[in-house]
Structures are given as structure tokens and as C-alpha cells.
Amino acid sequence: MRAVDIIIKKRDKQQLTAEEIEFFVRGFTNGDIPDYQASAFAMAIMLNGMSPVETADLTLAMARSGQVLDLSKEVDIVVDKHSSGGVGDKTSISVMPMVAACGLPVGKMSGRGLGFSGGTLDKLESIPGYRVDLSTDEFKKQLREKGIVLTGQSMDLAPADGKMYALRDVTGTVPSMPLIASSIMCKKIAGGANAIVLDVKTGLGAFMQTLPEARELASLMVDIGRRAGRNTVALLSDMNQPLGAAVGNALEVIEAIDMLRGGGPADYREHCLHVAAHVLVVGQRAKDLNEGRAMAENSIADGSALEKFRALVAAQGGDASYVDDNSRFERAKYVEVAHAPRNGFISQVHARSVGEASVVLGAGRAKKGDPVDHAVGFIIHKKVGDEVREGEPLFEVHANDRAKLAAARKAALSAHLFSDEFVPPLPLFYE
Amino acid sequence: MRAVDIIIKKRDKQQLTAEEIEFFVRGFTNGDIPDYQASAFAMAIMLNGMSPVETADLTLAMARSGQVLDLSKEVDIVVDKHSSGGVGDKTSISVMPMVAACGLPVGKMSGRGLGFSGGTLDKLESIPGYRVDLSTDEFKKQLREKGIVLTGQSMDLAPADGKMYALRDVTGTVPSMPLIASSIMCKKIAGGANAIVLDVKTGLGAFMQTLPEARELASLMVDIGRRAGRNTVALLSDMNQPLGAAVGNALEVIEAIDMLRGGGPADYREHCLHVAAHVLVVGQRAKDLNEGRAMAENSIADGSALEKFRALVAAQGGDASYVDDNSRFERAKYVEVAHAPRNGFISQVHARSVGEASVVLGAGRAKKGDPVDHAVGFIIHKKVGDEVREGEPLFEVHANDRAKLAAARKAALSAHLFSDEFVPPLPLFYE
Fold this sequence. Notes:
Two copies of one chain form a homodimer.
Chain A (H helix, E strand, L loop, with lengths): L2 H9 L6 H13 L4 H14 L3 H12 L15 E5 L7 H11 L4 E5 L9 H5 L11 H11 L1 E5 L6 H11 L7 H14 L4 E8 L8 H17 L3 E8 L7 E2 L1 H12 L5 H17 L6 H13 L2 H12 L5 H4 L9 E6 L4 E6 L1 H11 L15 E4 L6 E2 L4 E7 L2 H13 L1 E4 L12
Parallel strand pairs in A: 1-4, 2-3, 4-5
Antiparallel strand pairs in A: 6-9, 7-11, 8-10, 8-12, 9-11
Helix pairs in contact in A: 1-3, 2-4, 4-9, 4-10, 5-11, 5-12, 5-14, 9-10, 12-13, 16-17
């Protein structure tokens, strides 16, 4: 078998076999197949596509390119929840403790933020001491003993994916459905989850800007999960405007904790309950969504979800006192309120623009490896469909730098559009 | 400007500017743009194509990636003739001296054979001492003094092309019309020719197997030549069966000299006169094809073409006595005649199969850098349309090894097909 023949087959729109895909991925991982062949292959996939079978084969080959966690000795089932990324999306921080409190083991590896999109690890690190670099043994032990882990991908999971992603980033081959789907799913599969809930975002602040694209990605990933023997479900949720009110690392953790305590913005609360219900059904702890939702609500009401989060923070070395006293979180030096410039109905709070403005503040990173400022960000007071009066508070800017504050405030203000007519609120979920 | 944005533009089927193409080619040549970006770019071009303007810009950028010869101080006009490659194609060896004898300066850089297709340099090296590694100064001096040069590409002409071709070869991006056309034309342009005749072969023994493909390549190259300010014409000629009778290095040179002496197979003779007439018109020495053909015929009749070839060989260090005494050429140890196995009309002499059989004999090379045996090859006695009787001589095998002889003879015999019905001869030219 020769790499060039596999490239040529894909170039000519022929179907690749599992053996050919395995050969290519293994060769690429161990360095036998050079980058210049892999990038030509990626471009051929980008332009000619891959069938669902090929995509599943690619996913499995990438999952097997490194260690594949077997957690069956630790727990009977492990659930993972993945969000395709967005602005103000702190869902995992609330939902994972909720379902863990319902007796469903959670073993989740998250990523960092990049560009306008935040990352769960950056958010959790707002709590001093919280470790995101657990070893495999620590991961297993904590899963067994606490039933919840929220860490980074410190083990060598799916190394082919990391190598491939770096190459795609510089060769114009990022926005390929089969490559995106396999990149996400190979890590979930290698991470040992046997029940997976995918929260695919769509809209102005999502990687998939249109509903058809998001639907295509979602069904492709569900198909991969099914072929890999993982119980997988996907939700399509809105990311035209930020989710909830808080955008920024510590601000989002505070909001996620509020929610676990029974508070938080209504849209975020509803989003979390809906996701949690799905997770509980996929994880075989609830027989249907109604039961799942009731269980999730109960975990808030009886304090067990908050208790689970406290246990998680403590287990991973974080200062658990932050969970019960949000005044302990580092705060920004300057907090300024922006007011509505006119009367009307909010017709848009452009999620991506708000996300980019938060990068200006230092909450996100322009490129990999940049540090983030945990304290800064926004609190969005008004959402699409809300009626506002001129001069009413629209949002807060939390900043550590005056010039950045001014720039971010201006950008966030431009992200808001107003209408004289009534505007219906955005749905939380599409499907 | 960033390489990845240029790749993305081509991936998205947008038109690249001359500046973007120049940036990419220059960066690739000097190593700023790595191979993995160039191969992704090549695959995007392969699958999405390039407009004629983009293709011409690519050609000029590659031509300018190294030295571009300016021969205007040496001669008023320089002609080059390029064949897209085939079996038994020794046309340059006859035509170049003919037109040079008519007062048209010839400065041609040829290549070596690869696979089933022979190369002019290998053929000329059948004459001991013949140098194909002239320096730029030697090239210019000989052009000025002798009016004819037939050498290899020893200078650093179009280095981007050599680098790109090596990459295309291993990334499945060889058969792309814009990449093929620009690869051929950039070397012609860098070589200083201002009049170019392209002999594009089509058929079983050509890289372009179908007439529409050959026509597309031809018109693309003519368009590039026009945009680059070079007087360019393309002919489409047959390569279903070998051209002439001889296939193999020394055998072909002997046939080319025979032709210059007024002999040689009728098809080869006619092919050469037709090509020479076009070259003389493009090179502004003849006002039309009729005059060009008469001049070419005259150069044979008055011995001036042969004299020009003698001068060429001597100028490049070759033993000119070979030109006048073909018994001096190295001969193969074994010469065996294959006879017609049946009565009938020849319906096919598969050019590629004959070419591959000659590689078996050692006349060609399976991979770059392999040595060639100048003495071995075939003499094809019967061509498509000829009637044969069982037992009549069909072809000769010239070999230096008994086992190779048997294998090559068998393969060449299979290349011949017979019909009970009359078969019309193949045309020499299509357009």
C-alpha cells in the first residue's frame, strides 16, 4: 500500500477502505507519511468529501492512533457531553454535576478557548488550584470514587488528531464536515465515553452558522457514534446571541454556580435542564426526557448538584470555598454599565462580536498559548425580544484596562441591534 | 499576504491575482512556504482548476523563480520545439538541424526519458562525447556561432518547477492541466525561446490519451505563450503507434540521421517536414507552410541539414564521424526478428506497450537516475493499416540479454493486433 495511491483514490472520488484509512492514519502518526502527503489528502477530503462509512473509519483510526481508555472496570457507564463551542456557553459546568448527582458517572475532557469561543478549562481555572492535567490513573481513580471528572486532555489521546489539526489549520482544510466530525468524535471515543451528548451550536457565534450545516455535522457525528457502538444523541441549539448573561471566565463560573443554587438567567437555566435530561436518558438513568428533567430539577432543589460540584473542585485541587462564596473570585478593576441608546426591541446581540470583544478585554486568546485574564468579560442584561427604554442598563463591561474597556464597550454596543417593532425571542433549541 | 489565505481562495474556487501567485511561488522556492502548504495548494488547483490568466501567471512566476535567459544579444530570434513525449519520437534530432540550416537559430533544452517515453538527451548521448551539460555561457556562445544548441537543462532554470514536480509526483497532483501546461511552458520561457512549436501527442503512447485532453493542453499552452509574448503554435499528432520504425536510443539517432540524408521511414519523414514547416513559419523564416516545407525539403536535398547536425555534434564534443558512418554506433549483441503469426491487416501497434517493452530491454528507465542501454530497442517494420502475410518480418528486437530479449519480444508481439478486414492507416496529425 502506498500513501500516494490512497490520495489519488480520494482525489478521484473513490471510496476508501477501512484498511487504507488505517494505513494512512498510522503512517501519518508515526511519521512514515510526511506532512505534505497528509495535507494533499486533507484537501482532497475537503473538496471531494467522505462517505459516512469512511468518516467513521477515519474517526476510529484516529481514536486508535494512541491510547483508548477503557473505563469499564471503574464504572458501568461513562457519559460525556460536547459543545461545538460558542459565547457564554458554560453548560458543562452546571450540567455535569447535575447528572453526576443523579448517579450517572461523568468523565469529560474539555478544551481551551480559541478566538471568540471560550473553553471550559479556562473557565474552571478561575478557581485557584483547580487542576486540568490529571493523569490517566488520577482520571480513573476520581471517576471511580467521585463519579465526576472535568479535566483536560493531558494523556496522549488520538495523537493523529492533534497532528492533523495543526496541519489543517495552515492548509485551508479546517471547514470540512468529515474532518470536523471525526476530529471531535475520535477524542470522545478515545476518552472512553460510552454515552455521548453533542450540543451542536448554530448561529452568528457558532462555527456552524446555518441550521443545515449544524444539522449535517450533528447527524454525521451521531452516525459515527452509532457505528463506533457509542450511544450518541445530538441537540441543535441557538448561538446567535450569547447563552445566559455572563461572558468571561470567572463571570461564567459564578453564573454556573448560581444556576446550581437555583438561580441564574432563565435561558441558561432552561438550556441546562434540557441538556441534562438528554444526558440522563442517553446514560440510561432516566427512561424518558420528562423523568430526566424531573431528576435534574431535583438535583438543584435538594442541593446534591451543588454538592457534587464542590466535590469535583476539591478532588481536582481547587479551593472549594469559591463554590460557596462568589466574592472570593478575582474581580476586574473597572466595571462599567452601558445603557440603551434608544427605545425599542432588541433584535440582535451578535454572539461572535461579543465573543471577539471579550478577547479584546483579555478573556479569550487570539492565538494558541496566549494567557487569559479570568476576571474580565461582560454581563449581558438584555436578550433578543426584550423591550428596552433609552438609558436602561444594557450590559456591564468588566475590564482591567481603561483603553481595552472603551474598545470592548464600543464593539459590544455595536453587537446590539434595535427594532421599533416587536421581535420574538430566539428559540433555545432547534431540534 | 499569507500562504494559507491563498490556498483557501483556490479551495473556494476564487480567482487568484498575479501577486498572490507570485508570492506563493517565490515563498515556495525560497523555502518560506513549506511543502505541506504547496501540496495542499496543488491539490486545490488539481480539483478546482485554474483560469487561463491564472495559469499564465503561474507559468511566469515559475519561469522567474530562477534565471531567465535573454538571448537577444546573441540572435534575433530563438526557436524551441517541444514534444509532450512518446515512443520513437526522435523528431527534434532531425527537425532542429533542418530549420537551423534554413537560418533559424535553435536553442533547445531537452529532457531525459522516463518510463515508456524516451528522451532526446539519452538518444544524443549514443554519440560518444556528446555533452548535454553546457553552461549558460557555452549555450550562448554556441547559439551565436553555430545557430544550434541541443542540450540539457543544466542551469537553474525555473527551480520552482523542479521542486513542485517532485512534490506533485508523491501527492497525486500530476494530471492537472494547468500544472502540466505551466510546468512545460515555464521552462521554455525561462530558456529564452521567443518562438515555440509544441508537438502535443495523443493516443495510447502519449500522456494525453484522448484528443480532447490533448487539445485542451495544447490550447492552454498556446494561450500561455501568447500571454507571455512568445509566438507559440501547437500541433496535435498521433501517438497510438510508435513514430517511424526505430525505438531505442542509438537506433533512433541512426533513423534521424537517415532522414537528414533523404531516407528514413515515410511516416517519420512526413512528420518531420510538417513540423519543420511550422517551426519555420513561427520563427519568421517562411511566410507560410508551403514555403516552410519547401525550405525544409531543400535543406535535406542540398545536404545543409546534415551538415548542421554534424556541426552541432562537433560543437558539443561529440564524435562527428558517427554522423557519416552509422556502423560506428554501439550495436546490441542479439538481434532477432519476430514474424507475423497470421495473415491480416495490422490494426494496432500499441505505442505504450512497445515503449514499456523497450524499458525491459534497458533502453529506457523505470525510475529517475537509472542508467540506459543505448544499443537496445526495436525496429518496427509494419504499421497500422499495413497488410501482412503469416511469417513475414514484423519487427526486430535488439537486445544485450537473452532473457530480456524473450520477455520484450513477447510483450512487443502482444502490442500488435491484427484484423481480417482492411484497416485505414492512422493519421500523422489531427490538427
